[in-house]
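Weekly sync, protein design subgroup
Attendees: M.S., D.O., the rotation student, P.L. (late)

Item 1: inverse folding check
M.S. brought a backbone from last month's batch and wanted to see whether the design step gives back something sensible before we order anything. D.O. pointed out we never logged the input encoding, so this time it goes straight into the notes. Structure tokens as presented (335 positions):
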């Protein structure tokens, strides 16, 4: 049996307000100890921080993974996207159907030496995840199988009541080399502004990530109906190609135009259907992002819903060290 998810749930919705924070002390079978902190917004925006004598952080943001350590900020390799997401254990429990795709039921999962029923789904950046048990909200465990790595078994203990559901405060991970015991001092599930992840995790000194964040902030501004934010993210003058017209627009005109838009419609979802394609010029002050998105919401007066698919290329310019939206050429899909 194949379990489908809605398009915006399977992708990355900039309107999402859910926030998952955890803090844990980790004991390793080889004698090592350290602390971790995680933050999860969507399957495309997640962070893990390893805290010891030399703190290091790994974050996945859209098409990119980056790390931060005592030597600064660095673009990380592709596997680090899976690594950062794979440590969001509570997010998998709460949002299994939004993180994994093409989920199928199976009667036979080998786990801890026994056979169990459960579900298998594809991970967004490669590999598969198996949910052990028939209850998505309280699974017996998970098995992560990333490309070219041994299977990793995750077991749950010390379930505690968190508002209207139970969540584990002790998680054991066996990667077939070492066993890691995570004892959680904090598991926090809250609703916050759609911008919370970017406010929580300081932007790295990496142009491509900053351009990705600019794109996501512009989407989130639609979700919040914030024309002032749209203007603050826009260069003093932009060049716009839209609906058969080409025109220049100031940041003040951008504010006025979007005040009019937000008086007419309310956005409930603004979703990246594909990872944005981001480039930065060799001079480091001009860039662009090609995006494919779906905007969903309703008209204010009539309540009539809309769901529109768009593609555009956003031009960006770095001014006094800050990236701004400098132009846009867009088109919508007839449906």
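Designed sequence read out in the meeting:
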């Amino acid at each position: 049996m194949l379990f489908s998810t809605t398009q915006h749930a399977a992708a990355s919705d900039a309107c999402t307000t859910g926030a998952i924070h955890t803090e844990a002390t980790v004991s390793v079978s080889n004698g090592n100890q350290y602390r971790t902190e995680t933050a999860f917004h969507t399957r495309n925006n997640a962070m893990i921080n390893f805290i010891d004598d030399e703190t290091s952080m790994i974050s996945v943001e859209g098409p990119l993974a980056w790390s931060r350590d005592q030597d600064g900020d660095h673009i990380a390799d592709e596997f680090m996207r899976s690594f950062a997401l794979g440590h969001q254990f509570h997010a998998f429990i709460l949002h299994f159907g939004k993180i994994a795709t093409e989920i199928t039921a199976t009667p036979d999962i080998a786990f801890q030496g026994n056979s169990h029923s459960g579900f298998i789904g594809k991970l967004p950046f490669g590999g598969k995840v198996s949910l052990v048990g028939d209850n998505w909200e309280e699974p017996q465990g998970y098995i992560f199988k990333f490309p070219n790595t041994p299977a990793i078994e995750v077991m749950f203990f010390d379930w505690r009541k968190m508002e209207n559901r139970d969540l584990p405060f002790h998680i054991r991970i066996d990667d077939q080399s070492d066993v890691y015991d995570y004892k959680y001092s904090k598991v926090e599930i809250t609703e916050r502004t759609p911008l919370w992840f970017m406010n929580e995790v300081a932007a790295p000194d990496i142009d491509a990530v900053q351009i990705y964040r600019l794109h996501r902030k512009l989407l989130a501004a639609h979700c919040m109906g914030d024309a002032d934010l749209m203007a603050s993210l826009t260069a003093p003058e932009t060049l716009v190609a839209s609906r058969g017209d080409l025109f220049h627009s100031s940041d003040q005109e951008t504010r006025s135009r979007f005040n009019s838009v937000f008086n007419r419609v309310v956005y409930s979802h603004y979703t990246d259907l594909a990872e944005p394609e981001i480039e930065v010029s060799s001079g480091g002050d001009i860039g662009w992002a090609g995006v494919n998105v779906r905007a969903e919401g309703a008209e204010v007066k009539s309540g009539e819903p809309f769901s529109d698919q768009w593609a555009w290329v956003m031009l960006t310019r770095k001014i006094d060290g800050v990236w701004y939206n400098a132009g846009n050429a867009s088109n919508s899909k007839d449906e």
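Discussion: DSSP finds seven helices and 22 strands in the chain. The first strand starts at residue 2 and ends at 3.
Action: P.L. to compare against the previous round before Friday.
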